[in-house]
Amino acid sequence: MITDPWFYAAAIPAVVLMGLSKSGFGAGFGALAVPLMALAVPVPQAAAIMLPLLAIMDLMGLAALVRERDKPLVRLLLPAGLVGTLVGTVLFGVLSSKTVAGIVGVITLAFLLIRVVWPPRADAPPPPRWLGWVLGVTSGFTSFVAHAGGPPVSFYLLPQKLTPVAFTATMAVIFAAINASKWVPYAWLGLIDLRNLSTSLALAPFAPLGVWLGLKVVRRIDTTWFYRLFHIGMALTGCKLVYDAVR
């Protein structure tokens, strides 16, 4: 097990942040978790340590929210996300995690800029289904490499005008399946080992904490403030990912 105290100084806040993201409250902050943990360990190891913790968070999120999901959106985005994990398996090691982080960061900041400069009209139609498929594949790929799948698929969900609970539940179902699909490829790539698993076990008590705190808030928060916080989290995530890529 990792015993470096500086690792846990970064890892514990990262796990709580990811838990908040899984609950929907502060959802934009979830992609910060692996970069934050990667301050102390390499990115692939950080992703491997986070995977068992994601399983705990996904089970909590599904138990609380699965009935609130938007079924048509899940049917569209989930198969695309699973295709993205296959792409991630094939390209793992070809594209560095920092390159992927930079791409996700630039796309995130560009999306937010577009929404600020050209805010969507109240009567605007939902985005086309082909865009959902493209963003779903992208989300599965970035999730596989760095657990940063939230921003791409969020670009398709945000214009759907879902309630906070429906938005959170839809994300929870999609990423529970995507995260479950990573176990065999991660093991095949040599990322699942006793050192990483024992470190995950040490961090496990903190996994439910963020989810529990977030679920308490997400059912009470005003829709306007929910999306404001989401955009703030996305902006910070985009800046951090771009910084990690270019430093």
Automatic annotation (TrEMBL):
InterPro entries: TM_pro_TauE-like (IPR002781), TSUP (IPR052017). It is found in: Cell membrane. It is a multi-pass membrane protein. The keyword Cell inner membrane does not apply. The chain crosses the membrane at residues 7-34, 46-66, 73-94, 100-118, 130-150, 162-180, 192-213, 225-243. Keywords: Cell membrane, Membrane, Transmembrane, Transmembrane helix, Transport. Belongs to the 4-toluene sulfonate uptake permease (TSUP) (TC 2.A.102) family. This is Probable membrane transporter protein. The lineage of its organism: Bacteria, Pseudomonadati, Pseudomonadota, Betaproteobacteria, Burkholderiales.
